[in-house]
Amino acid sequence: TAALLAMFLMAMATFVWSWKSIAKKMEKPDYLVDATSTIEPQRGPLSKESRELLEDNFFVFETALGWCNSYQRTKYGGTEINTMSDVKDVGKCCKACQESHLAADPPVSCNAWTWCGDQETCGSDYLRCILKHIQDSNKPAAASGSDIGWSSGLINHAKENSSKADTGKKSEDSGRKYHVLLTAAGFNQQWLARIAYYHYCKMKEEHPNSDMGGFTRLLHTGEPDIWMDVIPTFVALALPPGVDKGYIVLNRPYGILQWIEQEMHKIPEKYVLISEPDHLFVRPLPNFMVGNKPATYPFWYIQPYENRALIRKIVGPIPDEDFEHIHKIGSSPLILSKGDLAKIVPSWLNVSVVLKNNPESDQTFGWIQEMYAWSIASFLEGIHDYVLVKDMILHPPFDSKLGNSPIIHLTYGMTLAKNGKFVRNDKAPWIFNKRDYSSVPPPRNLTPPPNGTTNEVVIRVIKLINEATSNIPGWDEYAQNSVDRCCRFDESAQ
Q1: What are phi and psi of 54, to 5 degrees?
Q2: Which residue of 45, 213, 266, 377 has the smallest Cβ count within 10 Å?
Q3: pTM for this predicted structure
């Protein structure tokens, strides 16, 4: 009896302690979920299979002079600057190119290298390192294939005048301000980025004391576009042809890595907001970070624990309890320190390459594999404390109330019946889908949702787009031959 009583008292004590812990968490503002970890995650390299995938494809690594990339089974052409023998590894060859680049004038500096590490296929060229200059870094002439024993890489350095980043005024202490880094590629992201920048500028003007700092659009296509003189822009090199295997998002971490190397030290802000063109500001986004913990939005469709068997194949053995530190997040919208950004991004790129080249993860994670890669890379780099902000963004048409959310995410198509009710019907009378404007931007004055629509977020989306296009100079010329695709008036749809 005494033993049973003791066990009962212990159980009650445990219950009270647990209840108090839960109550303490509930005292925080209801828009925050503190994802603070209680144990240190198991850090370590990628699994053997993942390392082999990288070694057979494309990866980044660090030397004393910065980051290098290496593309396997590839020999770049170009003008030879120098040739060295008996170079023991690919890292030393890349570093030699970096040193040559720093020591020479740009017209003749090394911006590419090629190294042979396969004795069987290279013969007398085994361990030879050739430093080169390539005229167009976006289109390096190359021989590639399984019979090529060479590895090649580019030295990433900014083109002259390719960056017009909005750094704002320099200050000794920028406080809680963050720099907006908006990544973009493709035509539909071009017009969306222009509208997003309009609303960023509006928020900055109306709320000068907010946490919003400077702005940079990062084009990871390697090519400038029509808005270069309007939007502060950094043009990053795209990945070598064939590396992304049709998954253009793979260029995103590669572009951000270049921005970190070349531009990040120039901005006065301590923090960076990674954003996308379809993120429209409806009010200033506060810096939700708590201390040094990055702040982001928890995505319901990112499920690391449910995919733990596959993730273990990527990173090696991880205890079940550690999967609470591989968060249900992506890379945007996300606010973090510049130091944490520089720490995560190289791993993010390498993990992204692994996920794309692993047939199982490529099929399982699909278009959102880059989001999984961010979550996994954060874990590997020991960044395991996140502040998850449930109301950071809205997703119309599934979110219908504006509330206090600062960002509307235009990712889903919005389909409404004639009475304004949401319907799952591709032939609905009223539709807005950004994908309908993949080749031509939307015209001014899109048709608003039908009378009777009660979804505040859908109504605001069309108002935001119409306001921007009405105030952006030259939009009619930019959107020539465009058609308002909102109104379908298909009589078969109710």
Answers
A1: -65, -45
A2: 45
A3: 0.86
